[in-house]
Every structure is written in C-alpha cells, then in structure tokens.
Q: What sequence folds into this?
C-alpha cells in the first residue's frame, strides 16, 4: 500500500514541476524546484492526514479528524506564498506566483488523497490559463504598466520633451523622478513609471524613446 502512496507523491511532484516550468519560463521568483517541493510536501501531508493514524482506530474513545493536517497545509503554504510578494516602484510583484504556489499545494493534496483526475485536471487548467492570459487576450483587456530608467543629456527642456512625447502617444505618466548623475550636471537620470495602451508593444515604446536625441540609454523593466 505504501508504494501506492509513493506513486501519488511522484505524480504530485510531476504536476508541480509542470506548473513550475511555466513560471520559470517567464523568469518568475518560484520555479520548477519550488513548485515540485511544494506539491510533493502537500501530497505527503495529505497522505499522512488520511492514512497515518489507521493503526490507532482500535483505541476506544479516540476521535480522528483526517482534515486537520490538510487544513494546516492550506494555511501554511499561504505564508510561503506571501514571501514571494514584494513591492517594486509602486507595483506589486509576485501575486500570480504566490497564488500558483497555493494552487500547487492544492494539486498535491488532491493527488495525495487519490484524486488523480482532479489533480491532473487542475494542473492542465492552471497551465492553459497561464498561457492564454499571458498572450494576446490580456493585451486587449487592460493597459500595461512599465518602469523606465532613462539617461538624458542635460539639454534645455529635455525632460519636458520626454513628457510631451509620451502625451502624444496617449501614454500616461504615473510617476516621474529626475536627478543629476554627476557633479558637472551633464547628465540627468530619469525614473519613470508609465501606463501605456494595450495596443502598443514594448518594442514600439523602445523605438519611440530612441527618437528623442537627448536620450543616451534606456532600461525597461
């Protein structure tokens, strides 16, 4: 019987690795190893919760609740996911990855409970949803937020021209911070957080900025 339990753990780890591979391919914080370990651990905890106390059933006046350990896994993985959420330049990062960790734990628990079809099905649903929602469908729904770091020559109205350039292309500036990068004040370092139309790509934005002669370098996050 314990070999079947090990098989469940292996299947759960495989499902977690699939989800982790999709996250890793997008350069996210948690990748294959993290999702694999979470799924394997959740599956193990679920098996312990269901089967580890069967030898105690002959005890009189003993009440067992197989859902207790499983419930603790759900809340415990929530803390693990919270560690992947961070703030970067007025933007929250890692929410999807944290939710993925939580869902991966649920997948592992399902397989650990013997619900192979449910666990495998949820894995496919998560993968398909991630692929679709990272594709063109998302771009048609809402604007994109982008962080830029520009190095400008300290010319007259250089920052004003940058702002006008964005305004002409219907790009909203959320935050704008400029400071001199040297004592000679020959260059200006500008950090900009913008919201651009969904129809406009990062490549188009990069080309647009390079058209401004005062721009010496561009970094897009």
A:
């Amino acid at each position: 019987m314990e070999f079947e339990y090990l098989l469940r753990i292996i299947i759960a780890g495989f499902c977690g690795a699939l989800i982790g591979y999709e996250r890793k391919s997008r350069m996210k914080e948690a990748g294959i190893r993290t999702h694999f370990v979470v799924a394997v651990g959740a599956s193990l905890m679920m098996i312990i919760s269901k089967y580890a106390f069967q030898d105690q059933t002959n005890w009189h006046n003993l009440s067992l609740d197989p859902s207790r350990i499983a419930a603790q896994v759900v809340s415990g993985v929530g803390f693990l996911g919270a560690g992947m959420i961070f703030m970067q330049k007025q933007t929250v990062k890692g929410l999807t990855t944290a939710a993925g960790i939580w869902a991966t734990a649920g997948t592992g628990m399902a397989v650990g409970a013997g619900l192979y079809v449910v666990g495998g099905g949820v894995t496919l649903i998560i993968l398909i949803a991630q692929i679709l929602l990272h594709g063109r469908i998302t771009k048609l729904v809402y604007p994109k937020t982008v962080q830029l770091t520009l190095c400008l020559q300290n010319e007259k109205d250089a920052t004003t021209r940058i702002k006008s350039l964005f305004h002409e292309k219907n790009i909203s500036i959320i935050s704008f911070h400029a400071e001199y990068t040297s004592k000679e004040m020959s260059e200006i370092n500008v950090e900009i957080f913008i919201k651009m139309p969904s129809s406009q790509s990062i490549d188009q934005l990069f080309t647009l900025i390079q058209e401004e002669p005062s721009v010496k370098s561009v970094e897009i996050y």
Notes: The domain at 144-220 is CATH 3.30.70.260 (Alpha-Beta Plaits). The chain has a mean pLDDT of 78. Helices lie at 2-25, 32-51, 67-82, 95-112, 116-133, 136-139, 158-168, 202-210.
